Each structure stands twice: as structure tokens, then as C-alpha cells.
């Protein structure tokens, strides 16, 4: 074994590592890093949501199975490469898709299948709560799901003993602690910026409103305890160690940091937790997070107010749909290549197809698409109908087809961002982008810079994503200096020598995207008609 491998082996042996596991919308990923934040090993498990009884959900068994599978693949890679079995880890953190609804009874039984952020079934509750609080409550938020269940008089409401997010659930399962990181908590219920906790006045107001409807829940009692980054969130229990590591080699007692949402880990992974910084996360959904230096002047339904993992206020523009439709088209293209006797791996196919977008007309040749697999709150669609539309005069070729599908992935995001930049005049020093799209150099970065009409940077860790960011938060728990803020820790330790590639928006691309957006906004009537008239046969 060479010296470098021996050094890493010793780091693993001494437990000088941190593990981050993120449950994303299509993949559960585990990333093990050393104290220099370099990835030692990773593992993953592919999964998909499904529509069940009118709700987007995941199979509960897959949550546990996928968690163990991602860890197991990471562990096996370590054993193969470094000839050592992991028995201890310096610190662990879990993150997952934010928002959604997981409600449990006093025995810890899940009362209804996990309702994910993707559901657009809470419009009545979201609107009523927004008016009540004078604070935007999006349809995705946990409190909107709960209140909609109250309005629907669902029978499980009276049995709720605890409500949390997916990350909070995993953390509770493995530590026994009912806690949550403040960033994830801010997608459950509004946070008071001063107290760094749930807004007390809104809690009391909500209890009165549901009490008048005959519901006796006390919100403070059923929500998880809010923690800031760097605070202790418990230790891995013996039962938790057996769930995580099916080989039974991992020992209990490992410290855990607060569980966080994928928005928070994205901010950490791109060093975007300081005021006037922002990041864009590109995946099944797409969202921009801008750390605010001043309050937003009014309530906007397109803007969520959440926080960084350390509690700073953030303006979040979240579009439910981004890559799902593009992935579906890529699967079709893969079928075509296989039908003619060719076979390309995913990375090669995606790279070839995405690069075609650089050969396209600036506006996509007059083509139009909506990748709405699910409802889209920013454009007022309660359900999704993926569409591709063109006129006889459109310049229909592969390059324009690909550019159009990339442009539309950022269409709803652009509408929300225009509020922050044009109406609120927020100053943004830098925006960093991350997600699997950026595995292919230039294309995604170039087109999102055009969509936002602002410089966009990508780091070398762009495709590592939230699991790596969660591992960094876990490292912060055990490696920070006394009183060292998360911002200081990231600047001085994690990103001091980061390789950052910046790209200015190309004026030709900017004009092309503006022309595309005119079609996009005008064509929403087509999408509206599809939602209203194209009947969907529900599965499940």
C-alpha cells in the first residue's frame, strides 16, 4: 500500500472522518470525508417517488433500505480500496428533501404515507395561513400540509404526537432525539430571526385557529426542537448503528450534528451562507437561495423566507420542476440508440446531448416546452402536464430541442428571481450553482447565467451536492474552534483554496432567453388548458 493510501487508512482507523447522507428526490447519497474535507468514499441508492391515493410519496421501507444501501456501498468501497473496515466515524449528519409531512402517533407509527414537497394539494391551507400570518406559507411547507389535513377533517389528526421532516425522521430513528436544524425547521413553520426558534405569536395564533375547528393539537409540543449548526444533536444509538450499517461493524456513540434540509446543505456546499451571497441548486426541483441583508418589503407567494443552517434569513425561490422531463427525454433517446445497436453510458449520453444546446439558436428556435411533472406554485399550476409545443415555422432540430428543455427548466425560477432583483433590488455579490447538471462543463453554467442575467460560478465540488455539504456540517460540529461561526469555518478551512470557475452571462444568450421567456409566459395558457382538460389515470 502506497503512502497516500496508508495515510487515508490511518485517518479512517482513527475515526478522523465525517459522514453526510442526503435523501434526495431520486438518489440517497452517502459521502465520507476526511478532516481536510476531501471525499474518501461515497455510495448511493436510486429511488423514485410514486403517486399513491392522490399524493406523491416514497415507500417507507425504501427509506430504511436506501439508507442502509447507500452506507453499505460507501463502506464496501472503503474496504476494497483501503483494506479497512469502518467501525467508528468522527461525526455524522443527515439531510433530506425539505418540507413535506410526516406525522406520527405516540408509539412512533407513521399515520399517513410521507407526503413530499412535490404535492400541490394544500392551496387552500397555504392561502389561508399566508393571510393569517401575513407571511408567505408555500404549499410545500409542513404546516400547510397539517392545516390542509385539518380542513379536510382527516381522521388521523387527533392521533398526532409528533411531526417532522424526512431528515428529522431519520435523525430521530438513529438517535432517539426529536430535533431539527434551523434551516430545515424554517420549511416547517416560520422562524423568528431574533429568537432563532419558531415564531411564538404565530404558534399561538395557529393553535387558536385549529382549536376553533375542534382540533386540540398544541404545535409547540408536536414540532421538533430547533438547533443551530455546530450544536450537539445527540449520538448514534446501538439500534441506530444497526439500521445504518447492516454489516454491524459500526459502533454506537458517534456524535451527530442537527439534521438539515437540502437547501441548507446546498448553501454549505457552495459557501453561500454569508449575506449577499446566493446559490442555485439544480435537480428534480430547482431553487435559488439568496442570503438577505435587508427585509423583504412585502409578502410574495413566489418567495419563501427560510434560513441558513446558522439562522440567517434567506429568500428562497423554489420551482417544483426542473430535470424530470429532461431525464424522461434522455431515456427516450437512450432507447433510440439501443434500438440501432448502440449503447452509451448515462454520463456520455448526457454530455453529448447537452453540448448540442451550444449549437442552437439563441432563443431555442421558437420551440416551447413545460417540464411540469407536478404542480408549479410560481405559475399557479396545481398539477403537472409535461408539454412540448412548436409552430410550423419553428426551427425544429436537436440543438434547439435541447436548448429549449434546458431553458424551460429555469423558466419558473426566473419569474421568482425577477421579484428579488427587479422589485426588491437585492444586491447579490455572487451566485454559485451546483447539481448533477454541472458534470458536463460549460453548458449548464452558460445557460443558467443567461437565465438569471448574472455571473454564475461553479466549484469543483459542484456535482458532489448536498451529501458532501452535510458531511461538512458534521465536520463543523467536531472541528470548529470555539466561537468560530459557520461562515468563518467555511471561508478559512473548507473553501480557502477552492477551485472556482466564474462565467459572465453572454449578451446573445441573455437576449435569447428573454425571447424564450416571452413565449413561456404567453404559453402558460396552453399548460393551463392541459391541466384542466387532459385527464390523468392515477396509479397506486
The CATH class of the domain at 3-260, by name, is Alpha Beta
Low-confidence stretches: none
Q: Which range does the strand content fall in?
A: 15-25%
Strand order of the largest sheet: 16-17-15-14-20-21-22
CATH architecture name of the domain at 3-260: 2-Layer Sandwich
Tell me the name of the CATH homologous superfamily of the domain at 3-260: ATPase, nucleotide binding domain
> In percent, how helical is the residue content?
25-40%
Write down the overall geometry: globular
* Rg result: 23 Å
* Overall strand count: 22
Distance linking N and C termini:
52 Å
Give the integer mean of the pLDDT values: 93
| SSE-based structural type | alpha/beta
Q: And the CATH topology of the domain at 3-260?
A: Nucleotidyltransferase, domain 5
Number of helices: 19
Biggest sheet features: 7 strands, mixed
Question: What are the defining features of this structure?
Answer:
Nucleotidyltransferase, domain 5, kinase, 540 residues, single chain, globular, five-stranded mixed sheet, 19 helices, seven-stranded mixed sheet, alpha/beta
Overview of this protein structure:
GO terms for molecular function: kinase activity. Helix content is 39%, strand content 18%. The chain has 540 residues and is α/β, with parallel strands linked by helices. Among the domains are: 3-260, 2-Layer Sandwich (Nucleotidyltransferase, domain 5), CATH 3.30.420.40; 324-371 and 378-412 and 510-533, no CATH class. It has a 7-stranded mixed β-sheet, sandwiched between helices. A 5-stranded mixed β-sheet has the order 3-2-1-6-13. It has a two-stranded antiparallel ribbon with strand order 4-5.
